[in-house]
Design brief:
- It is a single chain.
- By secondary structure, the protein is mainly alpha-helical.
- 76% of the residues lie in helices and 0% in strands.
- α4 runs antiparallel to α6 and α8 packs antiparallel against α9.
- The protein starts with 17 loop residues before the first helix and ends in an 8-residue tail after the last helix.
- It comes from Muraenolepis orangiensis (Patagonian moray cod).
- Keywords: Cell membrane, G-protein coupled receptor, Membrane, Receptor, Transducer, Transmembrane, Transmembrane helix.
Length: 289
């Protein structure tokens, strides 16, 4: 991932004190936890046919896969002394941050999907087929890496201007949309779904809506600091990099922590997913027949 392959890479902090060693071990542990938990949830969904038949679990698969890639990339971007900036020789060409952005787009798309499903269930069943859901997922993956390609092909000055404007506008609009969808979904789950005639179906819809609301709340809590920081830096015209590297910057560590929290929320909020995880994926080998 480095720009110059001959450039020596050092640990995220010089291993000269106990505190620095703990930071180094924390980065390794965080990357490992992200990969392990998201791989477990992804495997559980793939093993359970009934889960794979629901559109909302397709977005979970997308989130888990992008977070697995983010965790793998963090072994480089977070464990070592790396800065993901245009002038940095150790940058990942914005590939590592793109995986985090893909998780953000997946959760936003999942919110819109749940809103459509509970607000217009009949239209949703007609419009959002499995193929169309997969098309939405493929579309934002392609879009994300087209942006990465463009940023790495155009001159640095142009890339900075395009990224600055796009990030500024995109952050504001998507945060407003996500907050607005959260409020609307909470209202629907609290009031409208209680009037469902079929109790089981109503409870299922409420649980799926509440799950995506909780996931989005935690997501916003982890991402708002970096969004606010980037927006403020765009206004001030600064470079937005106050820390030595990615692994010591708390506002860039928070989204990675969220990549650990999200699969735990999925498991906690979905009984079928939790049962598959505990009985098949995490089941001890000695207990299998």
């Amino acid at each position: 991932m480095a720009n110059h392959t001959s450039l020596p890479l050092a640990p995220v902090m010089p291993l000269t004190s106990l505190g620095n060693v703990l930071v180094f071990l924390f980065s390794i542990l965080l990357a490992t936890a992200i990969v392990f938990l998201n791989s477990s949830v992804l495997t559980s969904i793939l093993m359970n046919k009934s889960l794979r038949n629901e559109n909302r679990f397709m977005y979970m698969l997308s989130t888990c896969f992008s977070d697995i890639c983010s965790g793998v990339s963090y072994y480089y971007a977070g464990v070592l002394d790396v800065r993901d900036h245009y002038s940095s020789p150790t940058r990942t060409f914005y590939i590592a941050p793109t995986f985090l952005g893909l998780s953000y787009m997946a959760i936003l798309a999942a919110q819109a999907d749940r809103y459509h499903a509970v607000a217009s269930p009949f239209k949703y069943s007609q419009r959002m087929t499995r193929n169309r859901t997969l098309l939405v997922i493929v579309a934002y993956w392609v879009y994300a890496f087209v942006i990465v390609a463009v940023n790495n092909l155009v001159p640095v000055g142009v890339a900075k201007r395009v990224t600055g404007i796009g990030t500024f506008v995109g952050n504001i609009f998507t945060v407003v949309i996500m907050i607005g969808l959260n409020i609307r979904l909470f209202y629907i789950a609290t009031f409208q779904l209680k009037r469902e005639q079929t109790v089981t179906d109503g409870d299922s819809k409420r649980s799926s809506v509440y799950l995506i609301i909780v996931v989005a709340v935690f997501f916003l809590g982890a991402w708002l600091p970096i969004f606010i920081h980037i927006i403020a830096c765009n206004f001030l015209g600064s470079t937005c990099y106050a820390f030595k590297n990615e692994g010591t910057d708390p506002i860039r560590i928070l989204p990675r922590l969220n990549a650990v929290i999200t699969p735990l929320l999925y498991v906690r909020g979905c009984t079928a997913l939790r049962d598959t995880l505990l009985t098949h994926v995490w089941r001890r080998p000695c207990c299998r027949r």
